[in-house]
C-alpha cells in the first residue's frame, strides 16, 4: 500500500518523526516542487486485511512568516488481486496570525490657541497570538507641544495589564 502526502507551500516536513503502525518509518521519497509544495511518499506502508486500521503520523513545521489556512492532501493506493483502489482526503491547517489595531481620538475638538488637548490611543491586539513588546509611536502635528505626563491628572491615564507607561 502506497501513501502520498502533499504538504502545501508554507509547511516543511521534519525528518525523524514519521511513524507508521507504531514504528519509525521515514518516507521513501521527499520531493520539493517549484510551487513550494513538498510531496512525501511511502512506497509500502504494509499489508491490510479487511477491517484493519493503520495510523501514520509525521511532523511538519510552519515556515517563518507564514500565516493563514493551508490545505494538506493525502492519497493512499492499495493493490489487490482485482486491481488498485485509491482514496484521498484533505485537511485544513490553520496558522494563527498576529494583528494589531489602533484608534486615536482627541478631546476637546475644535481647539483654541493655548488650550490643552487630550489624545487617547486605544490599542487592541486583534490577532490570534500574544504581542510582546508593543511599541506605540505618536507624532504630534506642527503647532502642538507635548505636555509631560506628570502634569496629567491620574484619572486621565489608563495603562492596561502588563503595560508600561513611558
Describe the structure.
The chain has two domains: 2-95, no CATH class; 100-156, no CATH class. 0% of the residues lie in helices and 45% in strands. The protein has strands at 2-7, 11-20, 23-24, 29-32, 38-42, 56-62, 68-79, 84-95, 100-107, 118-125. The strands form three sheets. The protein has a five-stranded antiparallel sheet with strand order 4-5-1-7-8, with no helix packed on it. Strands 3-2-6 form a three-stranded antiparallel sheet, with no helix packed on it. It is rod-shaped.
Average pLDDT, all residues? 87
Helix content: under 10%
Instruction: State the end-to-end CA separation.
Output: 63 Å
**Strands in their spatial order, largest beta sheet:** 4-5-1-7-8
Computed Rg: 28 Å
Instruction: Write the H/E string, N to C.
Output: EEEEEEEEEE
Strand content: 35-45%
Number of domains: 2
Q: What order do the helices and strands come in, and which of them pair?
A:
Layout: E1 2-7, E2 11-20, E3 23-24, E4 29-32, E5 38-42, E6 56-62, E7 68-79, E8 84-95, E9 100-107, E10 118-125
Antiparallel strand pairs: 1-5, 1-7, 2-3, 2-6, 4-5, 7-8, 9-10
What keyword list fits this structure?
mainly beta, five-stranded antiparallel sheet
Provide a quick synopsis of the model.
It contains no helices and ten strands.
Amino acid at each position: 500500500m502506497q501513501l502520498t502526502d502533499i504538504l502545501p507551500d508554507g509547511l516543511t516536513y521534519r525528518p525523524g518523526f514519521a511513524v507508521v503502525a507504531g514504528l519509525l518509518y521515514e518516507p521513501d521519497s521527499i520531493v520539493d516542487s517549484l510551487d513550494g509544495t513538498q510531496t512525501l511518499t511511502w512506497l509500502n506502508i504494509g499489508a491490510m486485511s479487511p477491517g484493519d486500521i493503520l495510523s501514520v503520523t509525521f511532523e511538519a513545521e510552519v515556515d517563518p512568516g507564514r500565516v493563514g489556512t493551508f490545505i494538506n492532501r493525502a492519497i493512499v493506493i492499495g493493490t489487490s488481486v482485482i486491481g488498485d483502489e485509491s482514496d484521498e482526503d484533505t485537511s485544513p491547517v490553520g496558522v494563527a496570525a498576529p494583528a494589531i489595531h489602533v484608534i486615536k481620538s482627541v478631546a476637546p475638538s475644535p481647539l483654541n490657541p493655548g488650550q490643552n488637548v487630550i489624545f487617547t490611543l486605544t490599542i487592541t491586539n486583534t490577532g490570534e497570538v500574544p504581542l510582546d513588546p508593543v511599541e506605540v509611536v505618536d507624532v504630534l502635528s506642527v503647532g502642538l507641544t507635548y505636555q509631560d505626563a506628570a502634569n496629567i491628572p491620574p484619572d486621565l491615564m489608563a495603562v492596561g495589564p502588563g503595560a508600561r507607561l513611558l
